[in-house]
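Tokens as discussed.
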């Protein structure tokens, strides 16, 4: 990349970045309570009052408090058989070694569309390393658009990689590039683009939820999903 090219890109954004948001580590797993076992030999999940009207935020709060069975009960109540709730429900079942529920839910996770999006959301929730790189490659093989891959590169803690990704994103989707620069990279004096906020929010919400839930558990789930698809 020619010297000064990123400087010209920065001129579009304006000024410098202030800070970089760091992801939080998943909460430690708490011991599971004793109780009556179901026909499958597993203790039944607790009944949670008002679980049907709960949200993913309630799931994350329960996990943060160490109430993993409660979080699974909430997910079971709010899951509609598709989307992020199903993914988290399956990941929580895998974490709990509930193979019966994992087997039941994997076909639903396989239908998640677009398939590349979940892989990149999980990759963006991970620290740099082999798992992140493998998910990015898998997403590209599933048809991830250039803007989404550029966004992932722009989130890299490596300055050169971040610059390259941000410049690529600028050319692929300038409105989204401004929004990512403002919201993810902390560039001072840049406002998120109103036309891109909805697209940004749809992707970033899943990434942030997966990070708080524990991205490693979703990585393990996707390993099972892709093994089944092979």
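Sequence:
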């Amino acid at each position: 990349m020619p010297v000064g090219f990123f400087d010209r890109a920065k001129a579009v954004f304006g000024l410098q970045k202030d800070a970089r948001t760091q992801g939080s580590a998943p909460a430690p797993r708490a011991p599971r309570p004793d109780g009556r076992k179901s026909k499958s030999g597993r203790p039944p999940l607790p009944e949670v009052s008002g679980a049907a009207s709960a949200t993913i935020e309630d799931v994350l709060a329960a996990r943060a408090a160490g109430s993993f069975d409660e979080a699974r009960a909430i997910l079971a109540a709010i899951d509609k058989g598709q989307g992020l709730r199903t993914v988290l429900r399956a990941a929580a079942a895998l974490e709990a070694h509930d193979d019966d529920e994992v087997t039941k839910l994997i076909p639903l996770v396989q239908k998640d569309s677009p398939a590349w999006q979940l892989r990149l959301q999980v990759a963006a929730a991970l620290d740099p390393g082999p798992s992140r790189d493998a998910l990015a490659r898998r997403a590209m093989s599933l048809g991830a658009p250039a803007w989404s891959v550029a966004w992932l590169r722009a989130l890299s803690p490596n300055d050169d990689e971040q610059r390259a990704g941000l410049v690529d994103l600028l050319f692929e989707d300038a409105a989204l590039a401004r929004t990512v620069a403002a919201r993810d990279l902390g560039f001072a004096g840049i406002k998120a683009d109103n036309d891109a906020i909805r697209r940004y929010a749809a992707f970033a919400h899943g990434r942030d939820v997966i990070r708080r839930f524990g991205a490693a558990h979703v990585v393990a789930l996707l390993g099972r999903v892709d093994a089944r698809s092979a």
